[in-house]
Structure formats: C-alpha cells, structure tokens
Design brief:
- By secondary structure, the chain is an alpha/beta fold.
- The chain has one domain: TIM Barrel (Alpha-Beta Barrel).
- The strands form three sheets. The chain has an eight-stranded parallel β-barrel, surrounded by five helices. Strands 1-2 form a two-stranded antiparallel sheet.
- Helix 1 runs parallel beside helix 10, helix 2 packs parallel to helix 3 and helix 8 packs across helix 9.
- The two termini are about 35 Å apart.
Length: about 325
C-alpha cells in the first residue's frame, strides 16, 4: 500500500482510508448486536491487513454505534491502536438524537465539540484521536468558540491535529484566521460521478458550466498543503451500474471502467479509485464498504497506473462531454 505524509504532521497514512459510516448497524438507538461488533472486528482487521492504517469516523455515525464497533475491534486486537491513525469528525447533531422533534443541525460551540470528542474517546476506549475534522460548516459558528475548543482539546491531549470536512476555500480561510493550529485536511465528496471540484478547474471563463460553491477548493488546498480526502469515492456503487435504466453517462463510465479492469487484470473498484489517486495532489479516497472482499478489491488501486489518456477518457465518459 502506498502512503502519504500529511504536511504539518508526523503522520504517514495509507493512500486509502477506511470509513465507518454504517459500521454500527442501524441509525437509531437500538444497541449494536454482537454480530455487528464481530463484523466490525473482521472489517478493521481486513483493512489493516490490506495496508490501510487510516480509519475515518464521526460521532454521529449510526448514532455513535460505529465508534463503539471500532472500539470493540481495538479491544480484540491489543496493540492495534498504536498502529492506526484514528480520525474523528464532530459538529453535527441529528434530529431525534437524543431529543425527538428537534431539527438536525450543526453545532460548533465549545461545549458541544468538547462533549462530542469526549464521548467518542469513551466509546473507542482510547485517550486520544490523531485527527479531528469539523464535519460541516455551521452558519452560526462563533469562531472564538471553535478556537477555544481546539486549544483545550489539544492541550488536554485529546486531539493531535485538526481538519475540516465539506468546507470551501473561503470557509477554511476564515477558520485559519482564528485557529492556533493548522488545518491539515479537507474531506469532500469526490468521485468520477461527482467530479465537479476537478471539472471546475477546466472551466475558467467558460459560459454555461457552473458548479455550486466549488470555487478553487482543490487548488487552495494544494497551495496550503491541506490533504484532500474523497468521501463516496465510488458513488455508492453507481459507478458500476451498466443497466439500461441508468443514465447514459453512468452506463458509459461503467463500461469503460469494466474494460480497463479487464485490460489491466484488476477490479472495477481499483480502476475507479485509481482515477482519484492519479491526481497529482495526492487525493485519499475513503472506502466505506462492509464487505471484506471489496476492501481487498479496493486495495488493489494502489498498484494501478492510469495513463493521461485513460484518465481523461474516464472523465469524458462521466461528464458526457470532452474537455472544453
């Protein structure tokens, strides 16, 4: 497995990360069963055996049960915690958890952020996480509050480094004005079917091509040594849908992925992920499958080389149009 060094840290992470969004089972207050915990143990071990050392989590994933499932896996494998880079996200409150009738919302207040991380650490059974990403931009953020929370959590040894998720370049710049710690990563939706951050860079001074709130986010992060992580890197499996009911762009992309996989003797997952890995800024896809075989299929991406022609052919199929 190839690795990336995250700038401004001492962290060396696998070029693929493993995400735990659905690891805890149902999104409700029903406790995770022993079978779900054992499945999590198998999945975490499989990811590590495939060379993946970076685990992505969030306090809201399956209402905290994903954290608990990862914590169970860590307890079953003494010494594994020190070999992993654990990444948490905080800042979202889901409606109905715990107060039914309340709206889903974002909360970057000092009290909520500190309480969220304390809860995650307890569920994980560890004293610290290597990374904390502020999950989605909070329109009501008080920047002094988030800075105070970051200072406290770092001073207490709860969090080593900080990043963001789903933030634009200007939103990151605003946080950087107040935080005493560097922003080291930005986690964004990015795949062949959600290629806007990449396509936006080709559309300078072009009419009729607008991508909401993308600005020059990739370029900004590259300029400031901020690691990009890609969530939903295979678009929930839609990239492999070749059925006649699928849109033409999806069918064309799926057909080309299948063709390249056969030519290179690899898997479709590996081709789709290799498209992201081919980008020179070192994008780190976060795979989230609950299937151990698909983890292995995805890990093959680290050894797939796509030519410029192949990379642009995939983008053309996904866009349904050539480059301008």
């Amino acid at each position: 497995m190839k690795t990336y060094h995250i700038p401004n840290t001492d962290l060396e992470v696998s070029c693929l990360a493993y995400g735990t969004a659905s690891m805890g089972g149902s999104w409700d207050s029903v406790p995770a069963s022993q079978d779900i915990k054992e499945r999590a143990n198998t999945l975490i071990k499989t990811a590590f055996e495939q060379g993946i050392n970076h685990i992505d989590m969030a306090d809201v994933y399956t209402w905290g049960k994903s954290d608990e499932a990862v914590g169970y896996a860590l307890r079953q494998n003494p010494g594994l915690r020190e070999k992993l880079v654990l990444q948490e996200k905080a800042g979202i409150i889901l409606g109905g958890n715990p107060d039914f009738g309340q709206p889903s919302r974002y909360d970057y207040s000092y009290d909520h952020l500190v309480k969220s991380v304390e809860g995650s650490l307890k569920r994980l059974g560890t004293d610290y996480v290597d990374l904390l990403a502020f999950h989605r931009p909070d329109p009501l953020v008080e920047l002094e509050e988030i800075a105070r929370a970051a200072d406290f959590m770092q001073r207490q040894g709860m969090v080593r480094y900080f990043g963001v998720s789903n933030h634009s370049s200007l939103q990151i710049e605003l946080l950087r004005k107040y935080l005493n710690q560097p922003i080291i990563l930005n986690q964004l939706e990015l795949s062949l079917l959600h290629h806007h951050l990449i396509s936006r860079g080709m559309m300078v001074n072009q009419a009729g091509h607008t991508y909401a709130n993308t600005e020059e986010t990739l370029e900004y992060c590259r300029l400031h040594d901020i690691q990009i992580q890609a969530w939903s890197p295979v678009a929930g499996g839609k990239l492999f849908n070749s059925s006649q009911e699928a849109p033409e762009t999806i069918r064309a992309t799926a057909a080309l992925i299948s063709k390249l996989a056969k030519e290179k003797g690899t898997t479709q997952e590996a081709i789709a992920l290799a498209w992201l890995l081919r980008h020179p800024m070192g994008i780190q896809p976060i795979i989230g499958t609950l299937n151990a075989e698909r983890i292995a299929d995805s890990a093959l991406a680290a050894n797939v080389e796509l030519s410029r022609q192949e990379w642009y052919s995939l983008l053309e199929a996904a866009r349904g149009a050539g480059v301008p």
